[in-house]
Amino acid sequence: MSEERVKMRKQLGLLEGVAIILGIIFGSGIFISPKEVLEKTGSVWGALTVWGVCGILATLGAMSYAELGTTLAQSGGDYHYINEAFGPLPAFLYLWDANLIFVPSTNAIMALTFANNVLEPIFPNCSIDPWSKKLIAAVTICFLTFINAYDVKFTTRVQNIFMFTKISALIVIIIGGIVWMAQGKVEHFQDGWAGTKTSVSDWSVAFYSGIFSYSGWNYLNFMTEELREPFVNLPRAIYISLPMVTGIYLLANLSYLAVLGPIGVRATDAIAVDFAIASLGWLRWCMPALVAIAVLGGLSVHVMTSSRMCFAGARNGHMPELLAHINVARMSPLPSLVFLMLISLIMLIPDSLTSLITYCTVVESFFTTLSCSAVLWLRYKKPHLPRPIKVALWMPSVFVCASAALLVVPAWSEPGAVAAGALITLTGVPAYLLLVRHPPQRLQTISTKFTHTCQKLLLSAVEDTKEE
Questions:
Q1: What are phi and psi of 217, to 5 degrees?
Q2: Are 407 and 366 in contact (CB under 8 A)?
Q3: Distances in Å between the alpha carbon of 171 and those of 174, 251, 282, 296?
Q4: Model confidence over 45-78: pLDDT tens digits?
């Protein structure tokens, strides 16, 4: 019997691809951002306009990523596209920010949100010790890391269940809103533009909040190599997911505003729960559990996909060699999963991650814009590159221009946050020169010994890159 090759298996089909995209998008955003969007736009129709425009922008970006994902058909997503289009330094800076800040901070916040939704129904009238939340969050991160490392196929099946559960929860909200409006309770839409703000800064923040809720449309691209028939299933998953998300988000926000009204949406800290209390009768008891499942599913997808980005960076020499190894028993990127798990656990220690996330939001948006602009640059730089899917150039052009415009306003309204985010990114330049371009011999020796030790502990080996 021939030995199995050390290589991650192609075991994700169209349904799993759709589940990954919907799983990460339908995380906590739709239960958090409606309040922020309404506050910054000032009116009902203004808020709904933002949700619709953000859906269109996300769709244009996702269509552009369909071309990138089929043209540069390797795992790694944004990192891989930036590396191919603009070179190793920008790609390393993206990894630097993503692996040390974006990914672990997001994991920590989602895990804490899950812990909060689990504990609040159990102790409804009690103050909850922060360390109780942190311990449950830590256990959740470790458990999801374990199942992602143990069996990718089982994980994707669980994510399919999470996806259908989350869609069901949002459909319940939509049906509740439709029934409410069918009874003639549409007074909140009669003067829907009243109170609309004119501040460009406020509208910019509203768009950022809306885009945050749509974030994740590019995460399937991190796992291109594990998709069966990626040239077919990657674009199909995108084409199915993004229109569905946009429609569900618009209808869900319409329902929120119809039932709670602008004042109720602004006042709530748990919009889905308050909506359920106001309109769903006995079903209100299910909503905290459904929100917790939504967040847990989003966290599971985030753990899975982000580890592939770390793996791809290590494979190109931009991260420690160990992180490019695969567990020989389960064929999963176990070292990358464990590395991101440890960084995420560290992120649970501070009492607040808000300032760190604020500093890096603009930087993350910048790299997404840069990655999408790779479509335009590669059309010019490598016009003869085989492109199974070729989108109209106006799609990435509109996305890049709109995203760039949104980047300008925070630089003017919050220069401190932008400067801090830029400073965090620029600290990656000396790290790149020292650790990638000109690593000291002593450091290389220590790294090799550490890699060999961890190989034995994690039963991992270098990926077999030979063609079958």
A1: -65, -15
A2: yes
A3: 5, 9, 16, 19
A4: 999 999 999 999 999 999 999 999 999 988 888 9
Residue 455 contacts residue 322 (beta carbons within 8 Å)? yes
H helices of 31-75, where?
Answer: 33-41, 44-71
Structure tokens at 56: 């269109």
Q: Kindly provide the residue ranges of all beta strands, DSSP E only, lying in 322-465, ordered along the sequence.
A: 325-327, 460-462
* CA 136-141-92 angle, 5° bins: 140
Identify the domain containing residue 373 by its residue range: 14-324+334-418
Residue 210 included in any domain: yes
Q: How far is CA 156 from CA 298, 310, 333, 354, 364, in A?
A: 12, 20, 15, 31, 27
Count, in order, helices (H) and strands (E) of the chain: 18, 2
Q: How many domains does the chain have?
A: 1
Q: Is residue 267 part of a domain?
A: yes
| pLDDT tens, residue by residue, 100-140 | 888 898 899 889 888 887 887 788 778 888 899 999 999 99
Alpha-helix runs per DSSP H in 123-229 = 130-150, 152-182, 200-214
Instruction: Find the radius of gyration of the CA atoms of the chain.
Output: 22
- Asked if residue 300 lies in contact with residue 162, where contact means CB atoms within 8 angstroms, the answer is yes
The string of pLDDT tens digits covering residues 208-263 is: 888 878 888 888 888 888 888 888 999 999 999 999 999 999 999 999 999 999 99
- We report the CATH number of the domain holding residue 255 as 1.20.1740.10
> In this predicted model, what pLDDT tens digit does every residue of 343-390 receive, in sequence order?
999 999 887 766 666 666 778 888 999 999 999 999 999 999 999 989
CA 444 to each of CA 230, 320, 435, 438, 449: distance values in angstroms, whole numbers, following the listed order: 37, 10, 9, 10, 9
The rounded distance, in Å, linking the Cα atoms of 303 and 436 is 25
User: How far apart are alpha carbons 107 and 404 in whole angstroms?
Assistant: 27
Helix runs in 215-333, H state only: 230-267, 271-279, 287-315
Q: Is residue 240 assigned to a domain?
A: yes
Q: How far is CA 111 from the centre of its chain?
A: 14
Q: Environment class of residue 252 by beta-carbon count within 10 Å: exposed (0-12), middle (13-18) or buried (19+)?
A: buried
Q: What burial class does residue 9 get, using C-beta atoms within 10 Å of its C-beta: 0-12 exposed, 13-18 middle, 19+ buried?
A: middle
Whether 108 is in a domain gets the answer: yes
How far apart are the C-alpha atoms of 394 and 398, rounded to whole Å?
6
Half-sphere exposure of 170 (CA within 13 A, CB side): 27
Residues 69, 234: contact at Cβ < 8 Å? Answer: yes
